[in-house]
Amino acid sequence: MAGAAQMQEEVREGPGAPVSDEKADVALLPVANQWLLAIGIMLATLLQILDTTIANVAIPHMQATLGATPDEISWVLTSYIVASAVAMPATGWLADKIGSRRLFIIAVASFILTSMLCGMAQDIEQMVLFRALQGVAGAFISPLSQAAMIDTSPPSRHTRMIALWGMGVMIGPILGPVVGGWLTENWNWRAVFYVNVPLGLIALAILLAGLPHRPAKSRKFDLFGFACVGIMLASFQLLLDRGNHVDWFDSAETWLYCGLAISTAWMAGVHFVTRRDALFDRQLFVDRSFLSANLLMFVMGMVMFAVMVLLPPMLQHLFGYDVIRTGVTLMPRGIGVLISMQVTSVALSRGVDPRKLVATGFLIVGYSCYIMTGWSLAVDQQQVIVAGLIQGLGMGLAFIPLNTMAFSTLAPRLRTEGASVFNLSRSMGSSVGISLAMTFLARNVQVNHSELSENITATTFGVVDLSQVDRYGDLGGGLMAMLDGEVNRQAAMIAYVDDFYVMALMSLVAAPLVFLAARPKRPTGA
Questions:
Q1: Tell me, what's the pLDDT at 363?
Q2: What's the pLDDT at 182?
Q3: Which of 25, 222, 365, 452 could form a disulfide with 394 if both were Cys (CB 3.0 to 4.6 A apart)?
Q4: Considering the domain 25-222, what is its CATH architecture?
Q5: pLDDT of residue 204
Q6: What per-residue confidence (pLDDT) applies to 202?
Q7: For residues 362 and 355, is the Cβ–Cβ distance under 8 A?
Q8: What are the backbone dihedrals phi and psi of residue 432, each rounded to the nearest 5 degrees, phi first?
């Protein structure tokens, strides 16, 4: 008890970043009620993760109310993603400058306020501005929450805390479209944002009461490095989000984004190598386990979010599911995540090599995507549920050990900064995955439609002689419209299957890359 008290005193009054006594199995930042604090942290994290997908289903309703064009309304999603990506790299410096507790509380309070402003928006300009501000506030929540979950628990509980944090990150995108659709149908699209206010206030109250202080320290802000990273991330996100709208590299706009992203990435790389007090600590990028975990999290973000974005429109547009039935069908994926995360926590606590768990998880995800490549328009709900459950098991099996690998060899002082980079890898991976999946889908629908149409001729269609269809007047026109609609459905289904093939291949290729990382040490007391 005396040792714990002494450590707590060092945490509050020490001049620099405190160091935990891992042999004593004591938390870096001890708290009186760790589980209550964990609830507050997780609630804030879940709200932020939900808002990456919850607004998607409300976009058509927003467009009608705000009088926006399809191109303008897309900025409601783009502004949030770009602002979040640009702000996230500054998390480590801000946490050092004003203290991680203060930054976390400010971020949650700002997220609540900007959510309320989004619900009150009266035109598209206000909505885009408020969504950008919401993205900036939300950018700090994920890395700070992950670091807080680790710092407030002893080493023997790190795996359990990462598993708890991971549940929110994994389940949030699954629940987002379902919750957003239900709120939009039963109230209106503004409820999608207003729901953050009461839940956010509960999280804020818990954080104010229980979140411990970490000593702030003087650190010069790397303005040039931040500007380079910010421009690079903004250009890259705009390239991914706008590319499909402007027909990719047939547009000068795309080349502008591409040129800015490449040039600023090169400048940032040279800058970080040559400057001592750069935006990111160089020790992060010489840690083999951390780098390997970031690469794999990037791939996981691509696969996980691409599949989550593909399935709801497929079920609703091709199979005629309503929002509630879509949610029920996709929910087993979240159940699979919960089950495998518990299994993973037990396995890690017993000394199982986390690299093997991650590789197994990727293989299971790849297998589930392979199952989905056998789908057709005749697939039933049970088959979708089974594939989703298997996929959830694989995702949960890979996610927690990846976090363990990333932070197992990092010094405590690097956790917040490392968490911002790690979450940025996941965010960038998800953006790339979603963009590629939607681009492949759109292109393949056109190609498949053309190929299928070539096979429907007057001689191959045996019910009616298509060469004489004009004789039937409006009835003939209706027949041709029905044929074209069915060709579109079949073309879209084939395009979805092609995307699932790509996701399966990516998962299988990623599995052996896990062993590039060193095996993390077993936590003390586990």
A1: 92
A2: 79
A3: 365
A4: Up-down Bundle (1.20)
A5: 93
A6: 93
A7: no
A8: -65, -45
Domain spanning 284-526: CATH 1.10.565.10: no
How many Å is the Cα radius of gyration of the chain? 24
Cβ count near 482 (within 10 Å): 10
Both tokens of 207, joined, read 């954080």
CB 342 within 8 A of CB 163: yes
Q: Give me the helix-helix angle, 75-87 and 59-66, nearest 10°.
A: 110
Q: 376, exposed or middle or buried, with CB in 10 Å at 0-12, 13-18, 19+? A: exposed
Both structure tokens of 161: 């805390």
Spans in the chain with pLDDT lower than 50: 1-22, 476, 523-526
The pLDDT value recorded for residue 432 is 79
Beta-carbon-side half-sphere exposure of residue 517 (alpha carbons within 13 Å): 35
Give, as one character, the DSSP assignment of residue 455.
Answer: T
Residue type at position 303: V
For residues 433 and 301, is the Cβ–Cβ distance under 8 A? yes
Residue 423 confidence (pLDDT): 79
Give the per-residue pLDDT at 440: 81
**Residues 231, 139, 282: CA angle, nearest 5 degrees:** 65
Structure-token pair, residue 162: 């990462």
Cβ atoms of 494 and 444 closer than 8 Å: yes
DSSP 173-195: HHHHHHHHHHHHHHS-TTHHHHT
Q: What is the dihedral of CA 505, 506, 508, 511, to 10 degrees?
A: 170
Distance separating alpha carbons of residues 271 and 488, to the nearest angstrom: 50
